[in-house]
Amino acid sequence: MVNIDEQEIINAAKVIKGGGLVLFPTETVYGIGANGLNETAVKNIFKAKGRASDNPLILHISHADMLKDIAKDISELEYKLMDAFWPGPFTIVLNKTDIVPTVVTGGLDTVAVRMPRNKIANRLIHYAGVPIAAPSANISGKPSGTCVEDVYDELKNSMDYIIDGGKCEVGIESTVVKVENGSVRILRPGRITKEDIESIVSSVILDEHILGEVKENEKVLSPGMKYRHYAPKTKCIMIYSENNENMVNRINEIANEYSKATVICSRENKDKYVGKEILDYGSKTNLEEISSNIFSMLRNADKNESDIILIEGIESKGIGLAIMNRLIRACSHEFYIV
Ligand code: AMP
Ligand code: MG
To answer: How many angstroms does the Cα of residue 234 sit away from the middle of ligand 1?
Structure first.
């Protein structure tokens, strides 16, 4: 994280207070922030992203005191989760109060709330003095922005202020959970893993749409699950096998069917795809490294102007589940387990 002058954050907070849009870093990905209580400002976020109006936004707070204004009827279990994982890459869906505009929640009675741990994000919210509504910084459907350079061209005209805080540490969006009948349901996996949550709560459920596809007209608990996400312009296919050699062979076979293929793979495998464009996403022994690189990799792969992007999958355990959730969507559910 780069050091930002305090005055810059104060200036950005004034823009938020005045109803403008600010591109700002969090520890997960960059956000497009606006005053979460100002309906017009929030509508401008949807416009800037081209986001469907039923896909709700997360409200970001800097201090637990802000919670009571926006959420009500909070249970002991919900407090326990917030205590354990805030500040951090953890979002919880709670019952909303009347002051939260329905434009934020896509018409739902619930609101998703997060307290980021990134210092710039935290101070920005503090100086703004209001919860900041912020989705990931990207045009809807594209990979989320994890550094300003990746999204500058697509967002510069719609932002009123840009804070460049360098590369995001986590690199994938927050874990989203909802408590139902004493169980914690994970609606979107992230750096706070199922295993992390199980260390404090006995019953944790993974929503079936985390790796599965949403069928037409199917009801989902998190509207974001329905939409195409994270996708480069070039067609992408993911291939995974527990057997590394099988995975590499299958990727080479598919790549050979195309005149120009880009392979996104682990550092350990990068010399195994002869004649292909290679992007290495980090060591497969370091999932944190892979998660922090993956969205930039998907964007960079497009720059090669290949006919196909082939991506090595990883084991869906720990943070691996969150990475696979993003990769499966980047590939529009076209993936092979071999
Ligand atoms: P993004 O803004 O791109 O990080 O996406 C926010 C995610 O949080 C989307 O997948 C939304 O569906 C989900 N979300 C936000 N608010 C709610 C809510 N009230 N209930 C369920 N999911 C929500
Ligand atoms: Mg997003």
So the answer is: 26
Mutation test residue for ligand 1: of 49, 53, 57, the one with most atoms within 8 Å of CB: 57
So where are the chain's domains?
Answer: 6-206, 236-337
DSSP readout, 266-300?
-GGGTTSSTTSEEEE---TT-HHHHHHHHHHHHHH
DSSP-H helix ranges across 129-229: 148-155, 194-198
Assign domain 236-337 one CATH number from 3.40.718.10, 3.10.330.10, 3.40.50.11030, 3.30.1300.10.
Answer: 3.40.50.11030
pLDDT greater than 90 at residue 280:
yes
Bond before 87 cis per omega within 30 degrees: yes
Domain 6-206 in CATH 3.90.870.10: yes
* Closest protein CA for atom 22 of ligand 1: 222
Q: Rounded to two decimals, what is the model's pTM? A: 0.96
Average pLDDT of span 134-149 = 96
Compute, in angstroms, the gap from residue 136 CA to the centroid of ligand 2.
Answer: 4
Q: Which of 198, 202, 199, 207 is nearest to 177 (CA)?
A: 207
Per-residue DSSP letter, 49? H
Atom of ligand 1 nearest to the CA of 223: 12
Nearest CA to ligand 1 atom 17: 112
